[in-house]
What we know:
Blueprint: H1 34-80, H2 89-113, H3 118-125, H4 127-137, H5 140-158, H6 170-196, H7 201-222, H8 229-254, H9 259-266, H10 269-281, H11 287-312
Helix pairs in contact: 1-2, 1-7, 1-8, 1-10, 2-6, 2-7, 3-6, 3-10, 4-5, 4-6, 4-11, 5-11, 9-11
Amino acid sequence: MPATSPTSDRAAPPADLTTTPVPSRPAAPSRFGPVALVIAAGVSVQFGAALAVMIMPRTGAAGAVTLRLAAAALVLLLLCRPKVRGYARADWGTIVAFGVAMAGMNGLFYQAVDRIPLGPAVTLEVLGPLALSVIVSRRLVSLLWAGLALGGVALLAGHGGGEGFGGLDLLGAAFALGAGAMWAVYIVFSARTGRRFPQADGLALAMAVAAVLSLPLGVIEAGPALLVPSTLALGVGVAVLSSVLPYTLELLALRRLPAPTFAILMSLEPAIAATAGFLLLNQAMSALDALAIALVIAASMGAVRSQTRTKSD
């Protein structure tokens, strides 16, 4: 993916990974290399999203978002223990904007996966970061990548059969595209937060803002169902898989992996999402679906490489 990947439905490390170089550091030999860590983070995020789909019959999409954001905020606040004094009004404005983007991104994405398969939802969502990468690149070749991605989406939307993209709920597709737009906003404010706050303090505070914003909608839709112990446990599982674990894995990987390589690896998420949907949710994928997802992945990788060359010129 062409930038940080608060997945789809995730909270990624607050940094603009395609524009902020991450210095390479010598590391002791590890059983799992940095590439494996990034792939494991992507698997964690998408299987967390699949788990969220499984609890939606109990809580609805808004209730699932509330459980996921509230649990993630609680875990991050306990782990990071961010200070709240000594920051300027502009710093808090950035946190609020970051939290709004996070709540919007997750809320829209969960509404999408409540209506359409996980793989298509992530593929449509990734168009947001892809568009941001194309705009930032300012190179004609970036239009090629944008066209390739649009071709993939058109292929998926155009074929019939009632399965996959050919039978997409239009409202669900619109929610996925909206989530992609909020993902692009998330990336911008993730970078600003990373510059203003140490470590993951800004991420923890923004996650708390997002949780507060999502709470009223979750309570209205799910009500007492949010307090059922088994549902709460599943919500914590979604939070760990979608935020805490991938954030930790990505942070470890970024210490030894160049940022452009990281971003390219994140482009694999639509394929991971489709796999998670197939294995956990019995969401079948046709050959045309797979080809279209591959086109979007190729476009994301190409856009990242183009932007990297722009920065080196």
